[in-house]
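Re: your question from the hallway

Yes, I did run it. Sequences:
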Amino acid sequence: MKKFIQIVAVCFSVCLILAGCDNGSSSSTVESTGPQRDTVIIKLMAFTPDTLTVNKGDTVVWINQDIVAHDVSHFPDRAWHSDTLNPQNVFVKVIDDSSSYFCSIHPTMRATVLLKK
Amino acid sequence: MRFSAALGVAMFILAGCNSGNNDQAAATADSAQAAATPAPEAAPQQPALNDAQIASIAVTANQIDVDYGKIALDKSKNPEIRKFAETMIKDHSDIIKQATALATKLNVTPETNKTTQDLLDGQTKMNETFKGLTGDAFDKAYAQNEAAYHEAVVNAVKNTLIPNTQNAELKSLIESVVPLLDHHLQMAKDLAAKFK
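Structure:
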């Protein structure tokens, strides 16, 4: 009888653990609305997309897929900027504010990151 | 004299365009004749330039602008001229690297041809012009030549090199250079406008 009670207790514990796991899954779904990662492709002398809207704290990754070097620089004063990005190089930045940016090597290449309101 | 290098490329473009028009006119005449009499089996049409010649032209045209940039860095103290020259050296060197790597991969040996030689002759004349200039006169001549040279090269690439290139990878590389050349042309025009 004692053994039976022990088995029931173990089964109950397992059920509780499984229930907890379900709750965990639910909370991880909620977490997916946290900081996101967006990508901007640099190719054919353009930033694509040329306007990207993100939440504050999101991360943007710029990938240079062009045939020449570029950089990513705050417009117009280069308050923040990447190093020179040779082909296939990547620049990563957490976005805290809306800003326009450009390639200081090829200044007509311009784009914008906007914060969602 | 000042734009002799650019004129060399322009002559090449005109030659390319003319030969294209002639081909088109000949094709029209041929098709009219075909309606009247049974045609003999047509020989496959040969491109005006083969891929080895196109690779040679592409590398030479890029190298010439690298060389002009080096002259500008040697002679000019103007920050805008120097920044532009640095960009030309870096960008055109990057293109040469990729063109050379692709030619190696495709086992294509760049083949010197009349257009390559015309480009080099134009460069020799332009270098002579640059030698006699200093200060603002040099800066003005360099900026104006860059605008004329890029305009000629853009036209040559769009109207002659791309249509004649047979290998898909080489064609893709040349096509991918067009936005860069267009951008260089606009930069050069903006720069030249400051020296009028």
